[in-house]
Design a protein that fits this description.
This protein is an alpha/beta fold and about 260 residues long. It is built from seven helices and seven strands, in the order E-H-E-H-E-H-E-H-E-H-E-H-H-E. Helix 1 packs across helix 7. The termini are far apart.
Length: about 260
């Protein structure tokens, strides 16, 4: 049990990568605060992952709302009495170019993908200091530059990466709290599957991708990203802090990405 007796907050954990991380945390002995935007879905996921309801709590909250970060952390403390880890996974994913991104859309990306993690770390810091805990930010390979049709999303993930590297140095020195980031490549989550269906792709689009994008012949699964998160949350990662792990199956940096 790599996370035995630890308490972990996983934001955006009712679907996709977040759900996979929450599941893996429970399997490794942790207690988990599940977070999402929909009460009914959250309750269903909690029942699925923890039928007895003894190792989980559920917080339904819009992380961009004033005071929500502190409320999420307080809920974990009230439920379990301590905090050992925070996974900033909740994110807004979508398209936007320099031409068609208005102020409101830009602000939504920044508020969800950068501002919310910042203030969650701030709210969690006193508790994580007591346990010498760990923060894992879930970014994206788009943080390095991104694609032309995902400009505001890429900017928000680039900012998150800077936040990780900055705090990974300063907070570890000051309080022993470690901050690391995972930048996944293309992951086949429920949301990603539906996003491409909504764009007119056929039901079986994941099986018809160019080997340019999937040299292995398939996309990543959420469970493969979760495995990396457990390493950073567990004591086995030792003093590792300020690190960014790109989980990709081809060289993303500097690559000219055509449409598939």
């Amino acid at each position: 049990m790599r996370l035995e007796d630890k308490v972990i907050i996983v934001t955006g954990s009712t679907t996709g990568i977040g759900k996979a991380i929450a599941r893996k945390c429970l399997e490794e002995g942790a207690r988990v605060l599940i977070h999402g935007l929909e009460a009914e879905l959250g309750a269903a996921v909690r029942t699925e992952l923890d039928p007895g309801g003894e190792k989980t709590a559920l917080r339904v909250a819009d992380l961009t709302a004033p005071g929500s970060s502190a409320a999420v952390v307080d809920h974990a403390i009230q439920s379990f009495g301590q905090l050992d880890g925070l996974v900033n996974n909740a994110a807004l994913v979508g398209n936007g170019t320099i031409q068609n991104t208005d102020e409101a859309l830009f602000d939504r990306f920044i508020s969800t993908n950068l501002r919310a993690p910042f203030f969650l770390i701030q709210a969690a810091l006193p508790h994580l200091t007591r346990t010498r805990g760990s923060v894992v930010n879930i970014g994206s390979v788009n943080a390095h530059a991104g694609e032309g049709h995902m400009v505001p999303y890429s900017i928000s993930k680039g900012g998150l990466m800077t936040l990780t590297r900055n705090l990974g140095d300063t907070l570890t020195r000051e309080s022993g709290v470690r901050i690391n980031q995972i930048n996944p490549g293309w992951v086949l989550t429920e949301g990603e599957y539906q996003r491409y269906r909504d764009q007119g792709r056929p039901d079986n689009w994941p099986s018809h991708l160019s080997r340019f994008f999937t040299p292995s012949g398939r996309l990543f699964t959420p469970e493969e990203i979760a495995a990396a998160a457990i390493y950073f949350l567990s004591d086995e990662s030792g003093p590792v802090s300020g690190s960014v792990l790109d989980i990709e199956q081809h060289t993303f940096l500097g690559r000219n990405l055509p449409k598939f």
